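so ive been stuck on this for like two days lol. basically i have the seq below and the ligand is magnesium ion, smiles is in there too. i just want the complex predicted, nothing fancy, no docking runs or whatever. if the output looks off dont worry ill sanity check it later, just need somthing to start from for the group meeting slides
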Amino acid sequence: MSSIETFDLRPGRILNKKYEVISLLGAGWEGEVYKVKELSTGIERAAKFFFHEKNPKNKQAKWYAKKLHKLRSCSILIHYQTQEEILVRKRPVTYLISEYVEGELLIDFLKTRKGKRLTTFEGLHLLYALSKGIEKIHLLKEYHGDLHSENIIVTKFGLGFKLKLLDMYKWDLASRHNIEDDVCNLIRIFYDSIGGTKRYSKHPKAVKEICCGLKKSLIVKKFKTAGHLRRYLEIMHLD
Ligand SMILES: Nc1ncnc2c1ncn2[C@@H]1O[C@H](COP(=O)(O)OP(=O)(O)O)[C@@H](O)[C@H]1O
Ligand SMILES: [Mg+2]
């Protein structure tokens, strides 16, 4: 059977007599996410539909739901609610219902900024908000596994950033390596958000001391977890 590239769920379609499809929110490697309305309450939710080949025996959806549940005290992660199944072109498809997050993907938010990047100071605030949120995941000896600008929603930009993270990934490595990879990905997001390679030389020394030229061995020697990075940012000097 050929693989499904889009579920193409039309607005107005009723799912399991419980939800009404409102619109497509986004798509990624693993599936498609739609905004839906819970019929009994009118509350908007997000429904993530998994592509068959990315979800054999429903393993990936189950793993993701359980992980979100285990990490429900980490407020940077979306809140998982329930799992359902529908038939799409005669094939069963699992979807997970979670809270609907209003905001803008980091990748799109950056495009709206002057020069399509953040100032150094804004970038440090972004890194701080991410580190503080992910610190709680690392304290539980867990990792995110898929940190990039399309899995981060900026819900508020003011004195600081308010963020939500989507979409975790299960790697087969021991979690210490995954935690270190999370830290490297955080620093990569920071580096890219302040203009990437093109602007790197123009940034103050303090930025280079965080980015370590993006060398993984140097980064993990300095910051073993997001908590280390958060503490470092709280006492750093910027001049
Ligand atoms: N809870 C949510 N609230 C709002 N938008 C969401 C939500 N979950 C996902 N999205 C949107 O859907 C896209 C794909 O979701 P994601 O879980 O990252 O799927 P994939 O694993 O396929 O990348 C995201 O980049 C985002 O734009
Ligand atoms: Mg994604």
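Residues 126 and 237 are 17 Å apart (CA to CA). The mean pLDDT is 96.
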